[in-house]
Design goal:
Helices cover about 35% and strands about 20% of the residues. It contains 8 helices and 8 strands. It is globular, with a radius of gyration of 16 Å. The model has no long low-confidence stretch (mean pLDDT about 95).
Length: about 220
């Protein structure tokens, strides 16, 4: 299972150091939350931060847009060094178009679903996306508790992926720790975003704990 530390929980005063630490610890992605203060109440990272971090690490940037107009961010994010661009299904009536725009910009396209959003709203574009991010908390705030009820959605998504022979990653975000990552892996998730669990202690040790928990369920 791939691990994507979320820098929303990192030390903003020493962000470069924290990013290097998780890269050296074997992280697979760097998860970057971009909030506009409208789609979710908070503001977070913008393009200058992404541009500043790009020379610091070789990690792929998994950019999660929590914004009301995701289409305006695609080209700037691509130029800033984004690898994956995720946008919320709830933020647009034109998901198909935005997926096309992301791919045309040279990035991988990820569709994101809030806890209360049905898979039925995105089923038509599943053949086109590179990843589906299932929120396991309500978006916009770090440190929330995992919502066990979302495991049913992850299982159903994994079933659709297998039945239709799709290739997208199934990513989970919110309340991920060395216990909940096991539940998500068993349900079919392939990428886990972890913020508070990684950055509130030694990142290398915490990433190792996550990997051990995920791999133990595969034995």
């Amino acid at each position: 299972m791939k691990i994507a530390p979320s820098i929303l929980s990192a030390n903003f005063a020493d962000l470069g150091r924290d990013v290097k630490q998780v890269e050296e610890a074997g992280a697979d992605y760097l998860h970057i939350d971009i909030m506009d203060g409208h789609f979710v109440p908070n503001l977070s990272f913008g393009l200058p931060i992404i541009q500043a971090l790009r020379p610091v690490t070789q990690l792929p940037f998994d950019c999660h847009l929590m914004v009301t107009d995701p289409s305006t961010y695609i080209q700037p994010l691509s130029k800033a060094g984004a690898t994956v661009i995720g946008f919320h299904a709830e933020a647009t009536a034109h998901s198909y178009r935005i997926v096309q725009q992301i791919k045309q910009a040279g990035c991988q396209a990820e569709i994101v679903l809030n806890p209360g959003t049905s898979l039925a709203t995105v089923e038509e574009i599943l053949p086109l996306v590179d990843a589906v991010l299932v929120m396991t908390v309500n978006p916009g705030f770090g440190g929330q508790k995992f919502l066990p009820s979302i495991l049913k959605k992850i299982r159903r998504l994994a079933e659709i992926k297998q039945q239709q022979h799709y290739n997208f990653e199934i990513e989970v975000d919110g309340g991920i720790n060395d216990q909940t990552i096991s539940y998500c892996r068993q349900a079919g998730a392939t990428v886990a975003v972890a913020g508070s669990f990684v950055f509130t202690a030694d990142p290398a040790k915490q990433i190792q704990l996550l990997r051990q928990a995920a791999e133990a369920e595969q034995l």
